[in-house]
Prior knowledge:
The chain is α/β, with parallel strands linked by helices. It has one domain: 3-Layer(aba) Sandwich (Rossmann fold). Helices cover 41% and strands 16% of the residues. A nine-stranded mixed sheet has the order 4-3-5-2-6-1-7-8-9, with helices on both faces. It is globular. It binds guanosine-5'-triphosphate (GTP) and magnesium ion (MG). The site of guanosine-5'-triphosphate has 23 residues, from α1 and α6.
Amino acid sequence: MKSPSQPSTPRGTFDVLIMATMSAGKSSLVNALIGQELLHIANEATTACHIKIEHRRGAKYFTGTCYSHSNLLINRQRNISAKQVRDWNADRQVRQITLTGRFRSHLGPISGLVLHDTPGPNNSRDDQHAQLAFEAAKSVPFKTLLYVLNASQLGTYDDRNLLEKLQKKSANRGDNPFCFVLNKIDLLDPEKGEDLAEYVAKTQLYLSNLGFDNPVIIPSMASTALYAKKALAHEPLSRAQHMKLQQALEDFSTNKNALLEHVKAPPQVKKRVFQNLKRLENAHEAGRSDYQMTKENKLHQLVLCSGLGTIEAFIKHQHKLSPPV
Ligand SMILES: Nc1nc2c(ncn2[C@@H]2O[C@H](COP(=O)(O)OP(=O)(O)OP(=O)(O)O)[C@@H](O)[C@H]2O)c(=O)[nH]1
Ligand SMILES: [Mg+2]
């Protein structure tokens, strides 16, 4: 029997595993999905534990628990800060962190949603990262796997290696859990010929050559979505984050559907996003005279069109196909 101090998975969860090579934007995506900068993000090998984030409706704050390599509870903290999560993540004794709180989701989070952030397994300076990532892939009963591709570094040897492993491991599943998030789209420069349509086509070819038939591909700007959600929650943004958000809002006003147009996903997923966008546009028309409302409406639209809305709609779609028991 499990001792109560060991990590447990409540019944009726819908588990979403997030995997990718280092720095593709996994933790940024998780932070954007929960609407809070709780996980540490940096341009180097950062996530060092299996971090499990559970949605709890009505929770006022996030509670954190961390466990050792022998699955024993080390520490527990109510109303946990990003600093505390960062310290636990940096502690070599810690293998798993569980965070439970209310997700600030755009389309309304499904009940029982659990996100699993993992370390990038291609860290040459620490084999433990690969070990923890593959252990999570093995032990988590995931229904959806969000695989994050770094659009600014497509098709690296490490990425292909990881995809081949995941493809092999999932070959005997009766379902198709994969959703490919083509992240960092904001780094493409169309003036230099870095055209999104071409990137999506290249990604499609790359994935089909690896045996992923008809892959779901969602172009995304995870960090932009996170900054917009922070602004909506009236959380302070750093100067750099503020400038990037302003730039994103400017680009957004010239071509709102830039990312949505290139989504490869089931029609129901795209329909849900467009319906939500229409609803926001109608509310925007009605609230033209209220500056604050117009500003917030634009931020909501940006989140929806940044890829995050499509990712949420895809998770909902998967949940509908295979609800928790
Ligand atoms: N320009 C841009 N940068 C991004 C985006 N998403 C993430 N980043 C940046 O990419 C870097 C790595 O992001 P993380 O979220 O820490 O990546 P990760 O995949 O969790 O990395 P590991 O935990 O080390 O495996 C950070 O500097 C982020 O700010 C994006 O959509 N656009
Ligand atoms: Mg990370």
